[in-house]
Design brief:
Length: 217
């Protein structure tokens, strides 16, 4: 009989999602220190309305425990396939304010900004939500001051819906945000448009092209 640690390790491997450069896997207890250090950076934390600042190891440990509970949603940390460095994280979970969908959030550690990792993480998380998670609609709230995140959302097919105010733990008050939405049917169309066709006109569906299920800011 497998012990609990072995079962958890195998379960993590089965949930790992691979992109061109990254492995997105479930967070583990041993990730807490590096996770806390990355989010405690005020330039990262201030763009994430759902995290406090300062962001301590205890906060990271609490998020990790939530992220390993499927009732919370689906959380991933993104690590380099090359050296295992933590580059960022993402999650999608049932929305508390939009009962018809899931909320999506993602971030990239500052030293990896400007290298396209935000788009890569977002694409993989979106693909997981619609492909493996059975989600019908994804919502994304972007602070109006966060132009790079807005560009990532738009590149991923999100459509602007409206503006509003949300409570930000890091800012300790309400901040203006833009709400974007991505429907499953739009995602399916974007994927279909990416299909190459053979000479006989038959299409080969590449979904999910950037990721494989394993057992920019």
């Amino acid at each position: 009989m497998r012990d609990q640690d072995s079962e958890d390790t195998l379960d993590d491997e089965e949930r790992t999602v691979l992109t061109a450069r990254l492995a997105l896997r479930r967070p583990r207890t041993e990730d807490a220190a590096v996770l806390a250090a990355a989010i405690d950076n005020p330039r990262v934390a201030m763009n994430l309305v759902s995290v406090p600042h300062p962001y301590r190891r205890a906060d990271a440990e609490a998020w990790i425990q939530q992220g390993r509970n499927s009732a919370f949603g689906h959380a991933h940390i993104a690590v380099s396939q090359g050296d295992g460095s933590l580059l960022g994280a993402s999650f999608h979970r049932p929305s508390a304010t939009r009962p018809d969908g899931h909320d999506l959030s993602f971030w990239v550690a500052e030293r990896f900004w400007g290298q396209g990792f935000g788009t890569e993480i977002a694409h993989a998380t979106i693909d997981h939500a619609f492909g493996a998670g059975g989600v019908e609609r994804l919502w994304c709230a972007v602070r109006v001051t966060n132009g790079p995140a807005r560009r990532v959302a738009e590149k991923c097919g999100f459509q602007f819906r409206d503006t509003g105010m949300v409570r930000s733990l890091s800012a300790r008050g309400s901040v203006p945000v833009e709400h974007f939405v991505l429907e499953r049917r739009v995602w399916q169309s974007l994927k279909a448009w990416g299909r190459p066709t053979h000479g006989d006109g038959a299409a080969t569906f590449l979904w999910p092209r950037p990721l494989q299920e394993e057992g920019e800011r």
